[in-house]
Amino acid sequence: MVSLNSYLILGALLFSIGAIGVFTRRNALIIYMCIELMLNAVNLTFVAFSKYLGNMDGHIFVFMIMTVAAAEAAVGLAIIIALFRNKETVNVDAINLMKG
Amino acid sequence: MIADLTETIVKILFIFSINVGFYAPILGWVERKQSALMQDRVGANRANIFNFKIIGLFHPIADAVKVLTKEDFIPEGADKFFHTLAPFLSLTPAIVTFAVIPFGGAYELWGHPVKLVIADLNVGMLFIFAFASLSTYGVVLGGWSSNNNWSLLGGLRASAQMLSYEVAMGLTLIGVFMVYGSLRLTDIGMIQENFFRWGIFMQPLGFVLFFTCAIAENKRAPFDQPEAESELVAGYFTEYSSMKFVMFWMGEFLEIVTISGIVTTLFFGAWHLPFVTDQMLVSFFAGAGPNGAALLAMLVNVVVFFAKVSFFIWLMMTIRWTLPRFRYDQVMRLGWKMLLPLALINIFITGIVLLV
Amino acid sequence: MTDSAKNLHTEQMVINMGPSHPVTHGTVKFTVTLDGETIDDLKVDIGYLHRGFEKMCENGTWEQVMPYTDRLNYVSPLINNVGYALAVEKLFGVQAPERCQYIRVIISEMARICDHFTNIAAGAMEVGAMTVFLYFVEARDLLWDLLEELCGARVTANYVRFGGVKNDLPEGFGAKTAQAFETCRKLWVDVDKLLTKNRIFIDRMRDVGTMPAQEAIAHGFTGPCLRASGVPYDVRKAQPYLVYDQMDFEVPVGETGDNFDRYLVRMEEINQSMRIVEQALARIPRGPINLDMPALRWQSKDDTYNRIEALIFHFKTVTEGVKPPAGEIYSAVEGANGELGFYLVSDGSGKPVKCRVRPPCFPLTAAMPRMMRGRLIADIVPTFDMINMIGGECDR
Amino acid sequence: MGITTAFSTEEPLGGSVVLTKLEAAINWSRKYSFFLYPFATACCAMEFMAVGGPRYDLDRFGAALPRFSPRQADLLMVVGTITHKQAPILVKVYNQMTEPKWVMAFGVCAVSGGFYDNYATVQGIDTLIPVDVYIPGCPPRPEMVLDGLMKLQEKVTKEKWSDWPRGPAPVKMKC
Amino acid sequence: MQLLMFYLLGFGAVISALLLVTNKRPVAAAMSLITVMLCLAGLYVLLDAHLIAALQIIVYAGAIMVLFLFVIMLLNIEEKSGRLSNRKIALQFVGILVVGATLIAVAGLIKISPAQVTDGFGTTEAVGKMLFTDFLLPFEIASILLLAAIVGAVILAKRRIDD
Amino acid sequence: MSTNVTLDKLSRQFPRSVVETHTHRGDATAIVRKDEILAICRFLRDDPELAYDFMMDLTAVDYLGKEPRFEVVYHLYSLSKNQRVRIKARVPEADCTIDSIVSIWVAADWFEREVFDLYGIIFNGHPNLKRLLLYEGFEGHPLRKDYPLKKRQPLIGPLN
Amino acid sequence: MTDNKAFQAWVGTLPADKLKPKKVRKNIELSLWERVYLIEVLRGLAITSRHFFGNLVGFVVPPKGKKRKIPTVYYPEEKAVMPPAYRGRPTLVANADGTERCVACGLCEKICPAFAISIVGDERQDGSRYPGSYTLDLSRCVFCGYCEEVCPKEAIVMSEEYEGLCTTRRGDMLYTKEQLLKPVDQLQKRIDYVRRIYAKCNY
What we know:
heteroheptamer; E: 163 residues; mainly alpha; Four Helix Bundle (Hemerythrin (Met), subunit A); G: 203 residues; alpha+beta; three-stranded antiparallel sheet
């Protein structure tokens, strides 16, 4: 049988890869995708825990996370489209509207 | 274990051969011949081998061989990897989906229980959904990777359209699930043993909505905006030639079969004849011994199921050759403003009926 | 395509539709500036079928122009034949005998029916209803059979002669026509049922390509497109030629001038034209079908075989052409697409100085940008079909 | 896929029985499966409709699927007059078609320019692209077209591997 | 069997994730993310979470990623500045350090033996029951969140009329 | 003779510009000076008694050897009065220009472009005077009588 | 283009009320049921299915006097009967003794709009003229029938021939005199027809 640790290590690996992506990539879309990847990694750990604890609460968490991810994707992509219209770029370094 | 494995392999081979080996090539012929007859024409009938013509059945063979020997073209500036991947992506879901559709009842053969379905998942319908949503990628990638404005427009249209109609389709099916209380397609099939519990009687509105959404999912006319010939040349597969182009086509045809299978399973009594239960079949064939009876009953199931499937294929082809196509924004409006609310109303009514 | 791909970075996408695009009939190019799917700007480029009609006419004799007119509006060639012959007759100042006029009415109306069949068929095909297309092609084939029996060719008939027509109606033409019309009407009803109340079709056609009456007039619209806008201008009624004033028919008129009205007007005109043909066939008088004017055309076979002077004269007219008196005229007939005018200038010699055609679909095509701005890309399809741009006529 | 090029390298073996049989089989399939690209420009398009229509039904020969994308088409039907303005587009479409490809000149305008011998028209599309079958007539009767198609089928039957690929049009044009 | 599947899927997921992070073209990146999600869906099946697996494909792969692709194609984005600056490479190293630390912490700390899986674990029915009893409030809140997201997205993406 | 009303009115209104009027086989024709063509057209359209709301046709004729060489011919039609009139403006080869009437009848847009394309007559004030039927790069104007029938332009055409 | 003020002002003055449309066909209004797509879709399906099943049955039980219901002509096997008016390939009429009737007068060459005919005249020993070579370029011929119409000798007529005209080489379409000649008895029908329609009584 696969041990819980294997799932957790896998989850952690994916999470870190996602984090690296968020830190190093400059394309807003890819950053979004990396965030999605991180969320997925978390989902994996939730499902794994829930199986190993014999408790299905983890599934509910995953359900909620998916909802949040969907909402995030919708709003995030809308923001990207709006930004692209104004700035003609999706490079996050070029987006500094908030810097005043 | 061995028996299970054999059973699965036999079933997979059966479905695969019937889909890819029979329906995929024959549908090309059916489409041509049927449209021809509808239009007062004769249709392909001249291809002959040793002077045998058999009503043009050799034409699909000719098409297939010709297409295989045609130059395979990848346009300049296109993304080679995705360009090659896209047709496979659109073909695979169509083949895989049939795995959860039951084409017969559960019997016992030589002491081994046999269910006439490849994979009897408890989330069967969700599985179909999952793969239907994956088939979007083939289209979108095909459109994007061709480096052609028409393809791109086709891909964009396709993605938006399929996404929208998936929503309506899902909501439509909720009513069905509420009625049957299961996502497992074999369960749904079993319940419809009773003629008066066929989906068409319990969910008439659901049937219409689902059928519409399914056609739209499959991008068939009147929802064929992504490949609208008069607008977008050939839409997302404008730049495809040879085998890859035919794979898109085959994908479309197989999806027709799959959709017909789903419609049959959900709304038209699956493998059942009206008023005839599986038990009655087995007892009817009792003379052939227990195994023989089961085999014969299975045969009847399969024949009935595929007869129904063929009927829906015919219906879809008739629709395709009868109706003009929508405009793109009208498709979207129909999906979001008409089908979606109707699906919600359907759920609501179903809920009330179930409660009362 | 590739240069427009660069423009993708901005939100506008420039797409070249045509000329080998299925909707453009091979003879027109739309340069569409798209914003998403909305048309920001549309440029029409015609001339892909400019075959030098006028230049060819100026280099041939008056008779030799006749086959060229067949190929102007190649969907209804006989109307062009009739129009050109009428123009030359006006130049001569003569009028064809009555029977000939009836025959001309019959063939004109048949050509009109064919044209509308083709137009509606193509329109339906391009919005996706393939079956309708083939039903009307089937119906058109029946009429073409009749025309072939009469004229000797299915499309390019070259049938009308100055002061007459080439030959008389064949035996049993009326009965065959009645039979053909019966099938045509059946198919017409089928198509009517398939399209007229079909909401998908209506949604595609209604309020698309709308032209209000005043603007349509300003843009020089004529024919079904103008009538769809509500202006009952029909040369057959306004300035009756041939025997149209004796025929009982109505001019269908639309209301809004959108594509759906154009479709309805055409469908109704098919009916009206069938009525005209039936009336003409019922009333057609006996008598000569040609003017007995040797100067107007080549000599009859009897004469050329038997009379030496006639033969010499024949040689003269064939080699030099008939010689209309000097002058200039403008003569209009109601073509299938609108007013088909011929402006002829003669200097008294056997060759035209100028043979100008007023192409009805030319102004219609010119109004495409006006009709399409702000619409969706898919709206180009029905609009372009319903204005019925015919390359041979538009580009000449 | 890519079989056309693969086979052309095996030309020395061309005489062997297996290859000849294969060649015959493939030619058989090609001849009954023309996907058309109707390059319809002028009057002949009317007859083209009639050929495709119920009366004459091009589909009987397996040639009914008009593909408006040149990539998927086998038979380029040049239906009607080609003017100088149109010529570059015709060449472009021909070059875009995938091998094997055939060209049919439909009607005298496409064959030779017909009676439009003037400043604007191309005097026969064979000055631009290789043509496989010529159909006279202005426009040709549907029967003539079917005749031409059968002639083309005959021609296809006799083809060899070495005939393909045919390559781009011999004329270079500014497009 | 399960172990094999785990390693196969896990390996696939990691490789695809790496591809996602390193790929220049957004479309390729999106496709690799989809692969990650498919692998994860497979893992969920191994973990007896059938509903979640189906939802993973339907929601993530079927909807969210299509949306991503749609936007990528709509904007036709190409990454122009592909090279990373030194500062960014430093950041990358920090990231990798974080990875190591997490790995050690995770592997060392947690020791749970698998519990006995009850019948009906992870089925639609079970999840549904929980969702509509114990977790009704979060469920409703989630729906409100989605509604807000829809409205927000529409308003954001809508073009200003004066443009 | 209702057409004469038009011609009478026209010659009264523009005595200087209207060179000649005649009616041949029922076609009323007025030959006018090209300078005032815009005013004449506007008058014909706006005068309530004439109301020539249709610009049916616009073309040119090349009378090679005569002077002035070209004639620009306008065919107008009045819907409400159901009458036609032909206006001809002579354009000499040396000064091959005439005012554009696009501002009066939109329909004239393409007709003028066509005449420019085939005859080389320049229409002053036309918003987009480019070749219409022939391609950019075509040299000469083929409908002029001195353009040989078979002179082909090797620019983008085939190599024959 | 259209939105200048003068234009707008003028548009207002148009006599729209004087036009008096004769018959207005109302832009069709849909009832609620027709709006729901379904009814019309079903009606359309009924029509096309009627054709489908009619034709399907028509193969098995053809209507009286016909082979099948479908109007399709199975071309190479079945051939339509050409009406006498049909203008096929032009042919030269050969007398019973095989000599051509043509006297190389050149009228057809002159009138042919496509310049498809080229004749080189020659003289026999008895002084009668005959075409030394008579070439018809079928690749240019537009089948207009003018040559037949002007021929003073009944020497060239449009035959019923339309088969076998397609070639794979353009050069094959250059028909020489020998290829064009056809014995008179095969063309008698057309000659009679030509004589009838271009007879004096028709003038």
